[in-house]
Amino acid sequence: MKEHHVRVSHAPENLAREEQLAWKLARVAVDAAPLDPETSEMIINRVLDNAGVAIAAIARRPVANARAQALCNPRAGGATVFGMPQTHRVSCEWAAYANATAVRELDFHDTFLAADMNHPGDMIPAVIAAGQQCGVSGNDLTTGIAAAYEIDVILTKAICLHEHRIDHLTHLAAGVAGGIGAMLKLPVEVVYQAINQAVHTNVMTRQSRKGEISTWKATVPGHTTKLAIEAVDRAMRGETSPSPIYEGDDSIIAWLLDGPKAQYTLFLPEPGEAKRGILETYTKAHSAEYQAQAIIDLAFRIRARIGDPSQIKSAVLHTSHHTHRIIGNGSGDPQKYEPTASRETLDHSLMYIFAVALEDGRWHHIDSYTPERASRPATVDLWRRVTTVEDEGWTARYHHPNPALRAFGGRIVVTLRNGGVIEDELGVADAHTSGAKPFGRNDYINKFRTLSAGLASQKEIDRFVEAALGLPAMPAGGLARLNVEVPADRREPAEPLLPGLFERSASHNPADRFRGEPEHVQSS
Predict the structure, then answer these.
(1) What is the CATH number of domain 290-426?
(2) pLDDT digits over 314-349, tens only?
(3) Which residues contact 385 (CB under 8 A, 6 or more apart)?
(4) Strand 263-268 and strand 112-113: pairing?
(5) Which of 167, 171, 248, 441 sits most deeply, having the most CB atoms within 10 A of its CB?
(6) Which numeric CATH code is attached to 2-13+36-280?
(7) What would you measure as the largest C-alpha separation in the chain, in angstroms?
(8) Residue 513: pLDDT band with limits 50, 70, 90
(9) Which residues contact 496 (CB under 8 A, 6 or more apart)?
């Protein structure tokens, strides 16, 4: 690895583009280093993982709406949409939007936590969609996904966005632009311009994940990757973009992050060095925000020692700054204690998650979040006796320079009504690469099979697993196999979808529903 230092460069300095971070990232993306075998294997795992969580969410309203929007943009020879037959093709940017929404909806796929945090698997749908439309091979796709992860991991390790209340999608946008550029073997100049625009157009606040968290949380990665695909298209046409996007006088670093005197150190692979960033990321065994994964496992572990949860006087989770501030009561969000809060809010409430995991001894992507489950009086009573506190030791472990020694869990101190105290701690989730039961190939396959069972046919499930396992050798034009078809009646949401602008025509104006003429449109 080679150090690259980033600071704001004032206009008179005229920073050469070859010294700009966006150019350096573009060079990393298109560097023709051999694919690392472990990286290729992990990419297959994450393709399986994404598909499983996407199909499990196929009939949820945000996913169905995103799919309906995508299907309004058909394109012969375009990209596939999760749930639809392979013959249904749409423009790749819309497929990326719909598929990323499906992947993100249940908060159940991979994560990377460092100086910042995000879900790098959100990038995979965009790279696949662009690859399907361009007819590339499985090897090309694998190269692109490896590059996307590499860029995202580089940025996430070095540049903290959330401290300044900027959402993490900015780093993912750069990863998608670089990943598609690597997959298509585009020139450095083109990828540089695409990264500049993708970053510039994807600076959003963290209100997406504050307060009463909305369905936008599921949709925003699709929105980001859609804009990144459009940035690549524009750059391929020879158009230029704002630069230096990181170092400029009016850049996000100068005005929205650490300011004009900021300095960041990034570690970039040398030319010819294998891209192994994906191997530092990890997936989830439970459908909840990643920093809750170890706490769920911890709750399972201590519940027998506690016995009756109603005898708990208080439960205090000592944890890192990030966990306390983002999903703990350090966030200042009263909604994290509200039984009527949205599903999106509940999966970002460590207090709720600990209470339910302790009571149930299981975690389920649907059952653990139903309104009935959240409003159970005993649960609400316990939930409001759970708090979090920031612990410097856990914050230091969270940022440990050695990935094998990083910890994302915490220590629980349970005080019982009889005065007894029960304590325990867990550094990483059982499924983490350093955990008690690290996720391996069979775990990814089983997770996919479990989540898609009852939705896709057994024949389709088996076909997809076979296709994913053969990804690196997939011939050019064969990437449509990386889709899972679901029968129409199983992808319909419980309530009919409302029509939007894209359904508008001379004979069908969706605005009629605002004039007292209710209309509905079924998802496809």
Answers:
(1) 3.30.1330.120
(2) 999 999 999 999 999 999 999 999 999 999 899 999
(3) 312, 313, 314, 315
(4) unpaired
(5) 171
(6) 1.10.4100.10
(7) 72
(8) low
(9) 520, 521, 522
